[in-house]
Amino acid sequence: MDRLASVERTLRAADPHALLDAVREVLADLYGAPEVDLLMADYAMTILQPVGALPHTFQPVSAHTGAPGRAFGAQEPYPCEGPFPDSVTAHLPVTVRGDRLGVLSVTVPKDRYDADVLAELADVAGALGHQIVVAERDTDLYLQARRAERLTLAAEIQWELLPGRSCAREEYELGAQLEPAYAIHGDNFDWSTSADHLTLALTNGMGEGIDAALLTSLAINALRNARRAGLDLADQACLADQAIYGQHRGALHVSVLLLRFHLPSGNVEVVDAGSPRVWRLRDGVVEAVEMDGQLPLGMFEDSVYTTQNWEVLPGDRLLFVSDGVYDVASPAGERYSEKALARAIQATRLLPPPQVPRAVLHELAGHRGEVMAEDDAMIVCLDWLGRPDGQESIGRTEAEG
C-alpha cells in the first residue's frame, strides 16, 4: 500500500484530539521514526509552540530562526542532524491552501532517509494540516496550542471571524495580521474566493473591547450573508449598512473597504466606505491608491453605495492598512504614512505576502518609539500574479461563500 495513503487513512480514522498520536504511530511503523513533534504558530506569528499536554505545553521556539523557524519561514522542508546517533530530523511546513499553521518535525534513521522520503514526509505534513483544519470544529486542542497567552474576550470574537491569516491561488497570494494579537478590538479582514473572483473585506469598527468586537461581528456576518445571497458588491454594502443602522440607529458605525477582484482580467470593483486604505507597489514605485470615499456603514438610514473600478497588473503588490497603522505618529509627530510606510513597503518587497505584515508591524513599532499603541493595527498584503491564459473558468460553478 502507498505510504501516504496509509497515513491519510489513519488520520481520517483518528479522533480529532488524537491526530498527533496517530501520526506518531503510523510514522514509527512506516519510517521507523522515533520522534515526531507538531509545532503550531501562535497568533502573533512570532513563536512555534509544541502541541503537548495542554494547557501546559513544552518550550516554544522561534518562528523566524532555528531549524523549525527556517522551514516555517521559507515554507520548504528543512532537514538537519537528528537528536539520536545516525538520525535525521526533517522540519516540514504544515500549510493548508497557503494558510501557515505550523511545522511537523520528524526524526528518522539515516539509513531510511533519502530525497524521496523527505518528499513523502512533506506530503504527510500537508495531509496533517488538512485534518487539523477539520478537527478544529470538534476540539480546542490546536487552537489552545496557538496561544502564547490568554486572549481577551474581544480578541477571541475577532479571531473566530477570520478566514485564516494567509491563502494562495494561482492568481494571487495573501497574508494578513492583526495587532495587538491577544487584545484586538475592532479591526478585521475577511475574504472569499470562487472560480473567477476574490472578494476582500477590510473593516474598522468603532469603540473598544466587547462593544467593538460585537459591532465588527455584526458587520462581517451581514456582509457574508449578502455575499452568499449572490448580491453584487454595492448591494452587499447596502445590506450591511441597513443591518448596522437597524441595530444601533446611527450611534455606531463601521468603516469598510470592499473589493471584488476579477481573476481572469485583474479588474477590481471597489466600495470605499471608511478608513482602511491601500498602498500599491508597482514597478518599484510605492503610491497611495486614491478612491472615492463614501459613508461608513450604519451611519445613516438607507445609505446608497456605488462601486468604482480600477485594475491590478501582474507583479503588483497591494498593502491594505487600518488607521492604527497609517495614522501612528513618531515621537517627532510624523505620521507613519508620510514617509515611513513607503520605506517599509520597499524594504519588504522581496518577502512573500504572509511575512510582510509581521515585518511592517515591526517597523511600525520602531516608528512609534516607546509610546504604547492606542489603536488596533491591521495589515493585509496581496501579491497579484494574474491568470496566465487570461481566460474565464469553464465548466465550474461559481459559488461565493
Would you write up a description of this structure?
With 401 residues, this protein is of the alpha+beta class. Helices cover 32% and strands 27% of the residues. A hairpin with a 4-residue loop joins strand 11 (254-262) and strand 12 (267-273). Helix 1 runs parallel beside helix 4.
The major beta sheet can be summarized as: 6 strands, antiparallel
Low-pLDDT residue intervals, each spanning 5 or more residues: 393-401
Report the structural category. Answer: alpha+beta
Radius of gyration: 22 Å
Q: What does the secondary structure layout of this molecule look like, with pairings?
A:
Layout: H1 3-13, H2 19-31, E1 35-41, E2 47-50, E3 61-62, H3 66-74, E4 78-81, E5 87-96, E6 99-109, H4 115-135, H5 141-145, H6 153-161, E7 166-168, E8 172-179, E9 187-193, E10 197-205, H7 209-228, H8 233-248, E11 254-262, E12 267-273, E13 277-282, E14 285-288, E15 308-311, E16 317-321, H9 323-326, H10 340-347, H11 356-368, E17 377-384
Antiparallel strand pairs: 1-2, 1-6, 2-3, 4-5, 5-6, 7-8, 8-17, 9-10, 10-11, 11-12, 12-15, 13-14, 13-16, 16-17
Helix pairs in contact: 1-2, 1-4, 6-7, 7-8, 10-11
Characteristic terms for this protein:
401 residues; alpha+beta; six-stranded antiparallel sheet; disordered C terminus; PPM-type-like_dom_sf; PP2C family protein-serine/threonine phosphatase; EC 3.1.3.16
Q: Care to give the gist of this entry?
A:
This protein has 401 residues and is of the alpha+beta class.
